[in-house]
Every structure is written in structure tokens, then in C-alpha cells.
Known about the structure:
- By secondary structure, the chain is an alpha/beta fold.
- The strands form two sheets. Strands 3-2-1-4-5-12 form a six-stranded parallel sheet, with helices on both faces. It has a six-stranded parallel sheet with strand order 6-11-10-7-8-9.
- The chain folds into two domains: about 5-100 and about 225-240, NAD(P)-binding Rossmann-like Domain (Rossmann fold, 3-Layer(aba) Sandwich), CATH 3.40.50; about 110-220, NAD(P)-binding Rossmann-like Domain (Rossmann fold), CATH 3.40.50.
- The chain has helices spanning about 10-20, 50-60, 75-90, 115-120, 175-185, 205-210, 235-240, and strands spanning about 5-10, 25-30, 45, 65-70, 95, 110-115, 130-135, 150-155, 165-170, 190-195, 215-220, 230.
- The longest helix has 14 residues, at about 75-90.
- The chain is built from seven helices and twelve strands.
- NADP nicotinamide-adenine-dinucleotide phosphate (NAP) binds near residues 10, 32, 49 and 79.
Amino acid sequence: xxxxxxxxxxxxxxxxxxxxxxxxxxxxxxxxxxxxxxxxxxxxxxxxxxxxxxxxxxxxxxxxxxxxxxxxxxxxxxxxxxxxxxxxxxxxxxxxxxxxxxxxxxxxxxxxxxxxxxxxxxxxxxxxxxxxxxxxxxxxxxxxxxxxxxxxxxxxxxxxxxxxxxxxxxxxxxxxxxxxxxxxxxxxxxxxxxxxxxxxxxxxxxxxxxxxxxxxxxxxxxxxxxxxxxxxxxxxxxxxxxx
Length: 243
Ligand SMILES: NC(=O)c1ccc[n+]([C@@H]2O[C@H](COP(=O)([O-])OP(=O)(O)OC[C@H]3O[C@@H](n4cnc5c(N)ncnc54)[C@H](OP(=O)(O)O)[C@@H]3O)[C@@H](O)[C@H]2O)c1
């Protein structure tokens, strides 16, 4: 019987990892189920929460999971904390696959925000037409920023009405720098708001802002204590080989 690997997914890295492992292990990729479309992946797919760290512990035991790779987004802090706790409790090896943040380069006008609330506080002093690219879940932090007009990019349409000073643009990564530059110019954007997500798929907006000389308000990653970690898929595969 092949050993069973659980990949906590929801990122392009998780999908690439599942494809690179192929049939060597019995791979289960787990998704939160926030998206309307489900990616086509090798191995098995399960969708939906586990029920906290306790539920995940039970799942690890019932499914006889031999190892877990947490390849969730750097801002998905709950599931990562649950993975750490459950794997410790059950004695299952855990690796966090964490993509590197975007390096600051010459020409970047980067302003750091500690969290969403801090970003909302700083924003009016940086611009009046913001390109808000933080996903859907934490948009509420910006609802009271009435002096700024927002172009809000999200993958799926909003589930609730948005303020009048917000315009939605739908799009699914990967995003291309030329197209992001065109979007920013067309809408008269004077500041970009982003999470410090890192990764190639959404790097285009950082390049575009640099080319246009725009400030980038970058929300720092939440602090997590994840134990063993890898910064690339090759490193994650090497960890698996060593197990
Ligand atoms: N946050 C972002 O900016 C962002 C961006 C791109 C993609 N994503 C992806 O979207 C998903 C949800 O992100 P989030 O920020 O809402 O995460 P989160 O705050 O860490 O998770 C909230 C809850 O959703 C469930 N969950 C999250 N990821 C899961 C997974 N891969 N498999 C099964 N259950 C999962 C867990 O429910 P239970 O407690 O019931 O187990 C977790 O407690 C993640 O898989 C992440 O990789 C997030």
C-alpha cells in the first residue's frame, strides 16, 4: 500500500506539488471550498473544513495519513495553526510549503501595513483611487474609507452589496504585468493595496505599480509558528524523499 500524503491546498503551489508527486504516493488534496470552480488534480480531492484542530486530528487518524504538507496561502493562518496542532498531537510529520515574499526592488515605493486595519488607516494619506487586491474575505476593513475610490479585484462575484465608491473587477490568477498596468492606467489608480502574498501568479501588479511609479501598500503576513518549512516545491519533494 502506498503511503498517504495529505496536501492542504488552495494555492497554485499545492496543485503543482500534487502534479509533481504523480502516482508515487496516495495523495489527498484538501480544499476549503471557497471557490466556485474545483481544479483538476491527480490523486483524491476532499472539500470543506475538518472541524478545527480536533477534527483534523481525527481525519489524520481515520485516514491513516503518513505525512502532511501545508501548502495553503501565507495568509491562511487558521488552517496552518490547526495543522501544526493536529500533527503534533497525532505524531504525523508536517512540512509547511511557504512561498517567498516578493523582494523589494529598485523603484518600488513600498509602504508596510501591519494588518488590514492598519492598511485602511494609512490608505487615505497615500492616494485617492486604490486598486484593492486582497481577495474577498477581509474587504470589510476598507468599508469606512469613504474618501478613497476602490477598484476591487476578486475571483468570484461578491456575495453581498458593496459600497458605492467600490467597483468590482473579476479575475483569476495568473495576472500579467502588462494587463495590470493597463487596468491601473484605465482606472486612474494612484495606489495599489496588496497582501505580502509573494508568488509569481500575482507578481504582475507589483511590476506594473513599479513601472507606473505608484505606491504599494503591502499588508504583512500573519506570524505563524510552523516547524519544518520549505520555500520551493523541489525542497518539499526532497523532504518527502527523506521521510
Ligand atoms: N487567505 C488568503 O488570502 C488566500 C488566498 C488564496 C487562497 N487561499 C486559500 O483559501 C483557503 C481558505 O483560506 P482562509 O484564509 O479562509 O483560511 P483560514 O482562515 O486559515 O481557514 C479558515 C477555515 O477554513 C478551513 N480551511 C482552510 N483551508 C482549508 C483546506 N485547505 N482544507 C480544508 N479546510 C480548510 C478550516 O476549517 P476547519 O477549522 O473547519 O477545518 C479553517 O479553520 C485556503 O485553503 C487557502 O490556501 C487563501
